[in-house]
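Item description
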Amino acid sequence: MDNALAHPLRPYWNLAAAPIQAKALELALSLGLFECLSVPQDVGSLASTLRIDHANAQVLLDLLWSMGLLERLAGQPLTHYQNSRLAKRFFTQDSPESCAQAWSYRAGLLRRFSEQIGDYVKAGTPATPLAEMASTAANWAQAAQVQIGQEQRVISVPALLERLDGIPAPERFLDLGGGPGFLAIALAERYPKSRGVVFELPDTAAVARQNIAQAGLEQRLESIAGNLDTDAIGEGYDLICCSSVFHFIDSPLDALRKVHAALRPGGLLVCVHAEIPEDAPGASHVLPFYLPMLLRGKYVPRQGEMASALRTCGFEDIHSTQSASFPLAPVWVHRGSRP
């Protein structure tokens, strides 16, 4: 299709149809369809295996094929379907890079929240806010164990490690707001002589502690429970990493000053954070994912605010790059050092 000749409403018609595509993927995951299509199958065989309607199975498969999730193999007596490389990599349960649970969690949460947008806009808050949107210790811990843990291990950790290439091996590092602790584990494996700390809310810190034990790294890594707003985070770190931490902090500037003080002179902070671009096309990739935070009064900085905050808090040699390699929206990766 020639986009130059498309009707101006084309993007909004696509928008109206997007829930159909999301629901199709949710259905495929719940049926275990991608597990069945690890080898090519015709529609009839697949429908019998999954006990679904033959005619409508054909429709579902073609929709998933159009979304890049299946390959359609012609040239046989019956058309066969099998997983695309992307589906095999990210949506089959036995793949080491599976993000099936994480995607289902994100899709369901955003869909349910979308039904309450009107209540937030009209009344400030819905009569019954979604329980899973509450920033409770139990919610964080549950997500760290399953959905967010999957996303961190498969996507966030490799993306962040790539941005640490070339830095000197830290003697001591801090994974601030580190969730299930997979980044700290990866850093300990990359730097065999380093020691590290995961700082998290109590219930989530317990999850990180379990993962550290499973990795056999209890002698070099520890998980400390606390609240960044009110508790000490330690000191003498050569490297501090944090990702999407400042959304949930009462005073981001005070938290950054605490981080600055926790670094040794010459120590490095690597901060990954979404920011709202000043151009509409850029903002369109960020705002839909962060509307739940914005409508609940959480901190989502404008583009440039984090780099400015780093300078205000005394960081030097600040380098900021944009990345689309992290989950959900594009983010900014900021590096700054304590003089």
The two ends are 55 Å apart (CA to CA). The first strand starts at residue 41 and ends at 42.
